[in-house]
Write a structure and sequence with these properties.
A hairpin with a 6-residue loop joins β8 and β9. This protein has eleven helices and 15 strands. The protein has a six-stranded mixed sheet, with helices on one face. The chain has a three-stranded antiparallel sheet with strand order 2-1-3. α5 runs antiparallel to α7, α5 runs antiparallel to α11 and α10 runs antiparallel to α11. The protein folds into three domains: about 80 residues, Zinc/RING finger domain, C3HC4 (zinc finger) (Herpes Virus-1, 2-Layer Sandwich); about 90 residues, Phosphorylase Kinase, domain 1; about 190 residues, Transferase(Phosphotransferase), domain 1, CATH 1.10.510.10. The chain has about 375 residues and is α+β, with helices and mostly antiparallel strands.
C-alpha cells in the first residue's frame, strides 16, 4: 500500500496513501519521503505523522521518529537534473521565416531552416511578468520531448535563444500537412479524410499515447490541434508537451485547471480532484467523436470553461444524433467512445479497447474490398 514505486524511466516516486508526489524538502504540507518501519516502507511526512498503529503495509512497529529517505530524494534530484539538460541550438544556425504555421497560448510557430532541413521554430512570446516561469516550463518541455522517440510523437531537436533579444524557442520536426484540426474544421479538406484515413490517424494517435503512458507521461492537453499530420499519407504525430508531466504515482492531485476546456477530463478542470493517465483517454474519446461524427464538442458542451464545467457536473456528454448512426464506423466506435469519456476515471475504456475497436474497422473494410473485387 505505502511502498514508493520506481518507474521504468529511472525513479519517479510518490506516497501511495495521499497520492501526492514526494518533495525533496520540507514545505507547508510536508511531502518528503519518510521511512516509517524497519522493512523500508515509505510515506510522505504528512501521512507518516497521521499513522498511529504499525506500518500500513507490513504492520511492523513504526520507527520513532521516521527517517527521511535520502535515497529517494537523491533519485528525484537526479531525475530533475536530467530534465534540466537541454540541447542548445545556436541561434546563428537557425533561419526563421515569416511564414507563421500556427499560434498557441504562449508561442507562435514559424517555418525555419536548420542544418539544411526545413523545421518548425516554436517562438515563445515575451511574457515579462512570467519570464522565469515560462523559461522553466520551456526547458522542461524540451527535455521531456527530446527523451521521446516514437514514430507517432513529433521529434524535438533542441532549444534556441536569441543573444540580442533574449527570445527563446524550440526547434521541432515540421508537420508539413498541418494539424488534425485544420483538416476537420478550418480548411475545405474535411472530405479528404476518408473513413480509412481517419481510422489510421486514430490508431496512430492511440499508439503515440500508449508510448507516452509507458514512459509515465500524461499529456493533459490532447486535442485535434496537438495531433499533427506529416507526409502524403498523413502520419499522425502527437505534439505540444507544454503542460505534460511525469506521473510519479498512480494518481496525482490536480492543483489548477489545465488543458483545453472542451477536451479536458472533469478531473483536470476541477482543482482538488485526482487524475491519472485516463485523463488522456477522455480527451481521445472526444477527438474520435468529432472525427467520425463531424460534430463539434463545443456546440453541445458549452463555449467557455464555466459552461463546460456545469455540463460535466450534470454528467452531460455529446450526443450521437440518429443521422450519424447510419455510419458503420460510428456504430463500431460508439460504445468504446462512451466508455472512454466516463465520469469515473477507473471506469474508462483502455487504449487497448480503442485499438481493438479501430482494428475491427480496418478488418471490416478489407473484407468489403475483397467482396467488391
Amino acid at each position: 500500500m505505502a511502498r514508493a514505486q520506481a518507474t521504468s524511466d529511472g525513479g519517479a516516486f510518490a506516497c501511495n496513501v495521499c497520492f501526492d508526489c514526494f518533495t525533496t524538502d520540507a514545505n507547508p504540507a510536508d511531502r518528503r519521503p519518510m521511512t516509517i518501519c524497519r522493512n523500508g516502507h515509505n510515506l510522505c511526512a504528512t501521512c507518516a505523522d497521521q499513522v498511529q498503529a504499525g506500518c500500513p503495509e507490513c504492520r511492523e512497529p513504526l520507527l520513532n521518529p521516521p527517517v527521511v529517505n535520502r535515497g529517494i530524494i537523491a533519485a528525484m534530484e537526479q531525475k530533475m537534473e536530467s530534465l534540466r539538460k537541454t540541447q542548445m541550438i545556436k541561434f546563428t544556425e537557425l533561419k526563421i521565416s515569416n511564414r507563421c504555421l500556427g499560434a498557441g497560448a504562449y508561442a507562435d510557430v514559424y517555418e525555419a531552416k536548420w542544418n539544411e532541413q526545413t523545421v518548425a521554430a516554436k517562438v515563445i512570446r515575451n511574457l515579462e511578468n512570467e519570464a522565469r516561469q515560462v523559461k522553466e516550463r520551456v526547458h522542461f518541455e524540451v527535455s521531456l520531448a527530446m527523451s521521446l522517440h516514437h514514430p507517432n510523437i513529433v521529434n524535438t531537436f533542441g532549444l534556441f535563444e536569441s543573444p540580442q533579444t533574449g527570445v527563446i524557442g524550440i526547434v521541432l520536426e515540421l508537420a508539413d500537412r498541418g494539424s488534425l484540426a485544420q483538416f476537420l474544421w478550418l480548411d475545405d479538406t474535411s472530405d479528404a479524410l476518408s473513413e480509412t484515413v481517419k481510422t489510421r490517424i486514430a490508431l496512430q494517435t492511440v499508439d503515440g499515447l500508449s508510448y507516452l503512458h509507458s514512459k509515465q507521461i500524461v499529456h493533459r492537453d490532447l486535442k485535434p490541434d496537438s495531433i499533427l499530420l506529416v507526409g502524403a499519407d498523413l502520419q499522425a504525430k502527437i505534439s505540444d508537451f507544454g503542460i505534460a508531466r511525469y506521473l510519479q504515482s498512480t494518481m496525482v492531485q490536480n492543483s489548477v485547471k489545465v488543458g483545453t476546456p472542451e477536451y479536458a477530463a472533469p478531473e483536470l478542470l476541477q482543482p482538488g480532484l485526482h487524475y491519472t493517465f485516463t485523463a488522456d483517454i477522455y480527451s481521445l474519446s472526444l477527438i474520435l467523436y468529432e472525427m467520425f461524427t463531424k460534430e463539434r464538442v463545443e456546440t453541445q458542451m458549452g463555449q467557455n470553461v464555466m459552461q463546460i464545467v456545469a455540463a460535466l457536473m450534470q454528467k452531460r456528454r455529446p450526443l450521437f444524433k440518429p443521422a450519424v448512426l447510419n455510419s458503420p464506423c460510428v456504430v463500431t466506435l460508439k460504445h468504446v467512445i462512451e466508455r472512454g469519456w466516463a465520469d469515473n476515471p477507473y471506469q474508462r475504456a483502455s487504449l487497448a479497447d480503442f485499438r481493438q475497436a479501430l482494428r475491427r474497422l480496418i478488418t471490416a473494410e478489407v473484407k468489403l474490398i475483397f467482396l467488391w473485387a
